[in-house]
Design brief:
The structure is a single chain. By secondary structure, this protein is an alpha+beta fold. It has a single domain (3-128), classed as Nucleoside Triphosphate Pyrophosphohydrolase (Alpha-Beta Complex), CATH 3.90.79. The protein has two helices and seven strands, in the order E-E-E-E-H-E-E-E-H. A hairpin with a 3-residue loop joins strand 5 (63-75) and strand 6. The N and C termini lie far apart (40 Å).
Length: 133
């Protein structure tokens, strides 16, 4: 039986309606691919708590979760990922420090598909591009 991993991701939107995209370090699983920042949900932690904690740990960035956006189930060879993505906003000065990623970029939703995304995040990218808002 494959290991099930529950994760949350943040669609962090700035004042110009751009979305924060982060690049996984090359030595990690799915390295050198882009993703929405986030991470694993810990025991007894809500999605919101996990996402706010992960963004603070990985980027030293304080965010506020605004609303649920989409969920994705992706089966890999060795495990299954359950991803829940949430729209978020920055609540501090917006400066971040990359502790767990090799790069970050702000992109408009129309340009998201210019990056090579981890397979789990790709359905979220497609939905964002096709949304009318």
């Amino acid at each position: 039986m494959k290991k099930v991993i529950k994760v949350v991701g943040g669609i962090i939107v700035d004042k110009d309606n751009r979305i924060l995209c982060t690049l996984r370090k090359k030595e990690k699983s799915l390295g050198n691919m882009w993703e929405f920042p986030g991470g694993k949900i810990e025991v007894n932690e809500t999605d919101r708590e996990a996402l706010e904690r992960e963004i603070k740990e990985e980027m030293d960035l304080k965010i506020e979760v605004i609303s649920f956006y989409e969920k994705v189930k992706k089966e890999y060879e060795e495990f299954i990922i359950y991803l829940k993505c949430y729209k978020c906003k920055i609540v501090d000065n917006g400066k971040y420090i990359l502790k767990d990623h090799s790069a970050a970029i702000w992109l408009s939703k129309e340009n998201l598909d210019s990056l090579v995304w981890v397979p789990t995040d790709y359905p979220i990218v497609r939905k964002l591009i096709n949304d009318g808002d």
